[in-house]
Design a protein that fits this description.
The structure is a single chain. The protein is α/β, with parallel strands linked by helices and 601 residues long. Strands 8, 9, 10, 11, 12, 13, 14, 15 and 16 form a nine-stranded mixed sheet that branches. It has an eight-stranded mixed sheet with strand order 20-21-28-27-23-26-25-24, with helices on both faces. Strands 3, 4, 5, 6 and 7 form a five-stranded antiparallel sheet that branches. The chain binds adenosine-5'-triphosphate and magnesium ion. Residues 387-388, 416, 488, 520 line the site of magnesium ion (MG).
């Protein structure tokens, strides 16, 4: 028998519903109908399950849970006792519960860090005043702000909420998925931005976000990075007191991630700023204070006490919350302070000549090189310097203007931008592309489980979220039988746990099967975790690009980081790489010594 968020399902009831599935932690109940109601931030679902009960679930949260469970079932889970006092919001009798809520602070960038589906959307809805927390009284149909404000009397949150309710605080949000911007906004970038620029700040902001050259471009014709910067600008230009940025770094290269971080930081001097960011190196640089969120995805989320960003990320990677005695990761995540010395005796898989590709406006040269069996090559470089073009040449999707690639190899390719036009379930997709491999034990343990694809198998591909689609695409690419695996920007839209799991999965598949991987990504921690060696692209973005390598890790990281003028120091307690402040003593010392990433020799 399991305790189901206070509702007990006894043995008998479990037995009457013939296809309940039960594992150590969860009970799943089949769903009869799903009714969907949406407001501007959250989507609310009424779920009628067999047993004639209705569950109300909110946000992306339970929505995901529902879809993740086998047989379209709802997942039901027990809850830690001592938290009950801190219940902030509960969507229904058995719906998602949020315990505690972060307090925005002026003069600080407040970060939220935790897996997807653990309450970040609920937190943002509450802090933006869209959702009045019900303090657990889920039957209430109208908001009781007075009670909420009273509950937090004497805390900083009290003043914040009071301001929200009195409408003294106006909010502005940059949503997570910027790809949707062209669907809701038409015209040029300048049209869009001028509309929200009530204080005439566009002229000042556009150059700081490198938008000058695209102001007259149609929104439908922007690259991912340009869309991201446009969305950030639109959010910032809006005259508000509280600014929320949900994943400001997707599609940007590391240099731009840090430029955006600086702009957001300057905003926080006078305003409230809350960010959700999954690139840990960027979060570390961007945020001052971070709230970790933990719990059970789709069931409940707990907001831990605030910590300075350095400690918060260390605790997150360490996986243990001392004050609450909660372990949320089996093994701590570690980094090597010294470059790994790996002697590659491995056979060469592929040799390529100096390759050249000419488009009307862009010219790419990649110096000749070779890839070894079992090797994972990270590919790094600024936006629009030809990384994807190079990968496409290896994949056979583009022909080099000059130069050739020796031999014929079986290639498995995950493109940078994936869309979900496929009609059918995730399982259909796997079966139709990789056949029986998707039914093997190997697939279950090496791919589906670590990438958390298992629970999605029966869902329609065209209804997956960006992060879910990404995991399916990476899983699919790794499951194909090939000699070389080309994976372009796998980290986009994954949360930081999923990024770490994906990095490990890619490595394991390459190592165990003696295959070769080429992984393009902008997340430095991801590249560190996944790569044996590094290829570096540089050039004049959008005009000309130059690729070189693979180089050993130390040399590759140094070449790349020198290019973008960013150096990393090591955290004294954990060896975790941390971005140096430009022109700080360490930054200068390391740059002088030519050591941008690994510990000084
Ligand atoms: N088929 C094409 N025709 C014309 N120009 C193209 C084509 N494909 C790419 N380009 C241009 O080539 C340049 C390099 O693009 P590419 O996608 O290879 O960059 P990237 O290094 O992968 O960038 P990012 O980090 O943003 O993914 C860009 O300016 C792009 O607009
Ligand atoms: Mg690319």
């Amino acid at each position: 028998m399991a305790l189901l968020l206070g509702l007990e399902f006894d043995e008998k009831r479990n037995r009457t519903a013939s296809h309940y599935v039960q594992d150590e932690e969860f009970v799943y109940a089949p769903i009869r109908t799903i009714e969907r109601v949406s407001n501007s931030i959250a989507t609310v679902y009424n779920l009628e399950v067999e047993e004639d009960q209705t569950f109300v679930a909110a946000g992306n949260l339970t929505h995901n849970c529902v879809r993740k469970c086998p047989f379209d079932a709802i997942r039901i889970i027990g809850l830690p006792e001592p938290l009950k006092e801190d219940l902030v919001h509960q969507y229904s009798k058995n719906g998602f519960r949020l315990f505690r809520v972060p307090t925005p602070k002026t003069g600080q960038v407040v970060g939220l860090l935790g897996p997807n589906w653990i309450g970040k959307t609920t937190v943002l809805s509450i802090l933006s005043g869209e959702l009045c927390p019900n303090l657990g009284h889920y039957r209430r149909t109208r908001p009781y702000w007075d009670e909420v404000i009273e509950k937090y009397k004497g805390t900083e949150l009290h003043d914040y909420l009071e301001g929200l309710v009195a409408k003294d605080l106006r909010t502005s949000l940059k949503p997570q998925y910027v790809d949707k911007l062209p669907k809701v906004a038409k015209g040029t970038v300048a049209d869009l931005l001028k509309k929200v620029d009530s204080q005439g700040r566009l002229d000042d902001l556009a150059p700081r976000l490198y938008l000058d050259s695209v102001l007259h471009r149609d929104i439908g014709k922007l690259s991912g990075g340009e869309l991201q910067r446009t969305a950030i600008a639109a959010t910032m230009l809006k005259d508000a007191d509280v600014y929320f940025f949900d994943e400001p770094s997707s599609y940007l290269d590391i240099y731009q991630r840090l430029e955006v971080a600086k702009v957001i930081q300057s905003l926080s001097k006078e305003k409230y700023v809350v960010v959700v960011e999954h690139d840990l190196a960027v979060l570390d640089f961007l945020a001052d204070t971070v709230y970790l969120l933990y719990g059970s995805e789709g069931a409940y989320g707990v907001v831990a006490q605030p910590r300075p960003v350095r400690t918060a990320i260390n605790v997150y990677l360490g996986g243990f919350l001392k004050e609450e005695n909660i372990r949320f990761r089996d093994r701590e995540v570690t980094f090597e302070a010294r470059a790994p010395r790996r002697d590659w005796n491995a056979e060469t898989l592929l040799r390529f000549d100096r390759l050249e590709k000419r488009y009307d406006d862009f010219h790419l040269v990649v110096e000749g090189g070779e890839l070894k069996k079992g090797e994972v090559v990270g590919v790094v470089g600024p936006n629009a310097t030809g990384k994807t073009t190079f990968v496409k040449m290896l994949a056979g999707e583009e022909t080099p203007t000059s130069g050739s690639i020796a031999g014929t190899l079986a290639v498995s390719y995950k493109p940078q931008y994936i869309d979900s036009v496929y009609e059918g379930s995730v399982r259909d997709l796997f079966v139709s592309t990789v056949g029986k491999r998707a039914e093997s034990g190997w697939f279950e343990t090496e791919i589906a489980q670590p990438l958390q694809i298992r629970g999605m198998m029966e869902r329609p591909v065209n209804e997956l979220s960006g992060g879910e689609l990404q995991r399916v695409a990476v899983g699919l690419a790794l499951t194909r039988d090939a000699d070389i695996y080309l994976i372009d920007e796998p980290s986009a839209y994954m949360d930081s746990n999923q990024r770490m799991a994906a990095a490990k999965t890619i490595r394991r598949v390459m190592e165990n099967q003696g295959k070769t991987g080429l992984i393009v990504d902008h997340d430095v921690y991801f590249i560190d975790m996944v790569s044996d060696s590094i290829m570096v692209f540089r050039g004049e973005p959008g005009t000309e690009g130059h690729g070189e390598g693979p180089f050993p890790m130390r040399e590759g990281m140094n070449r790349f980081l020198k290019l973008v003028e960013i150096s990393f120091r090591r955290d004294a307690d954990t060896n975790r790489p941390r971005i140096n402040k430009l022109d700080s003593r360490l930054d200068r010392e390391q740059k002088d010594a030519g050591e941008y990433y690994y510990a000084l020799a």
